[in-house]
Amino acid sequence: MPRSDGPVLALDLGTSSGRALVLDETATPVPGALARHKVQPVYGAQGEATLDLDGYVDGLLACIDELHAGGHLEHIQHIVLSSQWHSIVALDNSGKPLTPVIPWVDTRSIPPELPADFDERVFHARTGAYLHRLYWSRRIPWLRSVLGTSATAFAGLPDLVIERLTGERLTSVSVASGTGVLDLATGRYDAEALEIAGVSPSQLPSIVPSRWAGRLSPSYAMRWPSLVAVPVHPPTGDGAASNVGTGAYDESTAAVTIGTSAAVRVVHPIADAPELPWELWRYRVDDERAVTGMAFSAAGNMHAWLTGVLDLPSPEPEGVEVGSSRVIAIPFQAGTRPPETVPGGSGVYFGLSFDDTAADLLAASLQGTSLEIDRGLRMLDSLFGRELEVVLGGGGIHASSWWRRCLTATFGREAEVCSEAEVGARGAAAVALGLSPSAGGDRLVPDSADIERVARLRPRYESLRSLAAEASSV
Q1: Which intervals hold domain Carbohydrate kinase FGGY C-terminal (predicted)?
Q2: pLDDT confidence of 3, banded at 50, 70, 90?
Q3: In terms of Cα–Cα distance, which of 380, 359, 444 is closest to 407?
């Protein structure tokens, strides 16, 4: 794998934590050089989910302080960022935040007024996004309806972190693509999306090319002297970074990543990209590449919640064979991503009986998530005209060997596990520095009996999924 010219400081801006870690010149995490600030979104009954901006940024800076105190920032040559997509903060005309960070999981927004000739499928093909509550085309009109004219500018969490570090409020083509108001082909804000949102480009962060590099402002250069003049690279959206970080950085390979949520994605050139199906989204990785895929809101979060609710002694559904549970679980606890409109609170179990155990319920939920991911994988197979190679990555993958076995049986193909847990940070470094990391982990071969059981289970799952989606959609 190509190497950088020295160690890299990676900042990973997640929904459940902010992290700072040091990677070596091959984008491999340096043992012991990681600091974490746990983050807990504040939830409300009306779909609210917010993060305290100052608390988040101060916690992230404290992580860098921790690495500095441990002597881990010596000889750092690059600073890279991986960040959650879709977040938004409303600002006043002096740049002061008027709201907390509103992350992807917040479900508040309003349908905007649309041009008379608006065609959402054409809009989707151009922006890779939908008129959905995730995106700024709906979030900005909603924030304006709440805040009035005081909201004069808008930015995402990574844009404000970059501004805090360098004094410049800007964004990358990758992060901007997650707002849903970017023209994917040109890499500039989309005129129709801006019209719908009711903003001008000057009210949003400037988009810089992937080769841009900033420098820490003087106060931080004094705080961390070893980082003086170290280039700060544009942030990469976490989904794109995770793909590259697992070793899935071209159109031959799909990455399945399971963290708080889950996704299946393929990285490919933006030039001559295949026509985007309605069911899939598309964002940018950098100036040259795009990433196409499908995301799922219930994954690692569901696993953690269920093991707690059921008071399970193990994160594994012990004693249950893959595909054998009579119970069918539809993992709609956090709703669905666009274009489906299933709201949060729609998770369903079908077929419960008095002899079902906690392990049966956990197995059914992990199986349901696996079948959801497989639905996206099969669409990507069709889009790219081949059965794709598969790599698995993320904390959820490392948390459960049963889930890994279930995924490979559901996919009906071999898969390679990424040996590195910090795929987002690794991928951000790889994107910024032109590295090509490999998965480097075990190769999993699905069990034929598991495959047969899942194949028998699939028609019942799909039928009940349709029923649950129809009953819950809004």
Answers
A1: 255-432
A2: low
A3: 444
Q: Encode pLDDT of 304-339 as tens digits.
A: 999 999 999 889 999 999 999 899 999 999 888 889
Q: What is the pLDDT of residues 161-190, one digit of tens each?
A: 999 999 999 999 999 999 999 999 999 999
Rounded to a whole number of angstroms, the distance between the first and last alpha carbons of the chain is 48
Of the candidates 248, 247, 177, 245, the residue with the CA atom closest to the CA atom of residue 207:
177
Give how far the C-alpha of residue 206 lies from the chain's centroid of Cα atoms, to the nearest Å: 22
Question: pTM here?
Answer: 0.93
How far, CA to CA in Å, does 440 sit from each of 42, 391, 419, 428, 436?
Answer: 37, 10, 5, 18, 12
Can you tell me the distance from the alpha carbon of 217 to that of 165, in angstroms, rounded to the nearest whole number? 6
CB 225 within 8 A of CB 76: no
Structure tokens at 279: 């069911």
- In the chain the domains, ranked by start, together with CATH numbers, are 8-234 (3.30.420.40), 247-472 (3.30.420.40)
Q: Of 235, 233, 268, nearest to 249 (Cα)?
A: 268
Residue 316 contacts residue 266 (beta carbons within 8 Å): no
Joined tokens for residue 41 = 């979104």
Would you say residue 473 has pLDDT above 80? no
Percent of the chain at pLDDT exceeding 90: 87
Measure the CA–CA gap between 145 and 31, rounded to whole angstroms: 48
Q: Which two three-digit tokens encode residue 442? A: 């075990």
In the chain, % helix, strand, coil (3-state, to 5) comes to 35, 20, 40
The reported pLDDT for the residue numbered 135 is 95
> Who's near 441: CB < 8 A, 6+ residues apart?
416, 417, 418, 419
Q: How far is CA 468 from the centre of its chain?
A: 25
Are 366 and 317 a contacting pair, CB within 8 Å? yes
